[in-house]
Design a protein that fits this description.
The chain has 297 residues and is an alpha+beta fold. It has 3 domains: 58 residues; 89 residues, Pdz3 Domain, CATH 2.30.42.10; 101 residues, 2-enoyl-CoA Hydratase, Chain A, domain 1, CATH 3.90.226. The protein has 7 helices and 14 strands. The protein is flat, with a radius of gyration of 29 Å.
Length: 297
């Protein structure tokens, strides 16, 4: 009995020793990693110091450091990117599916904001803006040679606020003013859908935003009523977005119990399996998915 107790004690001590050795090795590795990172940060600090003291012109350090942050993340993989604070709200609006403004598709042509088309049902559409209209002034300030960032700042605003735009229209001799009351402007992630022939439906999804699943299922129901028996899903140049929206769409085509997607990361909470949870409405429908190098999804 004493021999058995001694062996048990020896085994326990051995296990404790192994755990301690493992913990010490882990701590040593983490410390070595930290030293390596701090060493690289010191190199960056040295470079900044040398540039600051010796570069012939004044340095825009905000711009320079944003370039450094962007470069760091772009080295990880094609889909990692740095979003500056000033762009974050715009990115958020893109994936939330709406913003507040006047509602136009536009381009900067010959220095002027030029309407490509008003978005149907928006304030711009309701006041009668037309394709080809050029904006000369916004709130009595010149809009000539305005950039896209400034255009967004001056045309977007809180719902209910007004903006006065001086418009030059092809075929109309004199410029004229229009007053537009800003409102919620939808950003559709399903750019279009239609029947290619009597049996084949086509849906173009440009990103996976907050309302993409609903837009997609609405499009599918409409095409089914027109006789769709197979689908072409166009994800070319799809910029990605919310994974849960892509999963919900995929769930419509995959039988319950099958794996839809899994994620794997360094931390345990990142390791997740997403399983088809219900009988999809389109499990037996043939589907062709179009992608290209611009497809982030």
């Amino acid at each position: 009995m004493a021999f058995i107790k001694k062996n048990k004690r020896t085994i326990v001590l051995s296990v404790v020793a192994l755990v301690l050795l493992f913990s010490i090795s882990q701590i040593s590795r983490l410390r070595a990693d930290a030293r390596d990172i701090y060493g690289k940060l010191q190199v960056l600090t040295d470079i900044i110091g040398i540039v600051n003291e010796n570069y012939v012109e004044d340095v825009n350090w905000d711009k320079a450091m944003e370039g450094a942050y962007r470069g760091l993340l772009e080295e990880l993989d094609p889909h990692s990117t740095y979003i500056p604070a000033k762009r974050f709200k715009t990115v958020q609006e893109t994936f939330e599916g709406e913003f507040q403004g006047i509602g136009i598709e536009y381009d900067i042509i010959d220095g002027y904001i030029t309407v490509i088309s008003p978005i149907v049902g928006t304030p711009a559409d309701k006041v009668g803006l037309q394709s080809g209209d050029k904006f000369l002034k916004i709130d009595n300030e010149s809009a000539y040679k305005i950039n896209r960032e400034e255009t967004k700042k001056r045309l977007r605003g809180k719902k209910g606020t007004k903006v006065i735009i001086n418009v030059m229209r092809p075929g109309v001799e004199d410029p004229f003013d229009v007053t537009i009351t800003r409102d919620n402007i939808p950003l559709y992630s399903v750019s279009g859908y239609f029947m290619l022939d009597d049996e084949t439906g086509y849906i173009l999804v440009n990103r996976f935003a907050e309302k993409t699943y609903k837009e997609f299922t609405d499009a599918m129901k409409s095409l089914k009523k027109e006789g769709m028996k197979s689908l072409i899903l166009d994800l070319r140049y799809n910029s990605g977005g919310y994974m849960n929206q892509a999963i919900d769409i995929l769930d419509e085509f995959v039988k319950a119990g099958d794996t839809l997607v899994y994620t794997q990361g360094r931390i345990k909470t990142a390791n997740r399996y997403h399983i088809a949870t219900k009988k999809g409405d389109y499990e037996n429908m043939p589907i062709t998915v179009l992608i290209n190098r611009g497809s982030a999804s």
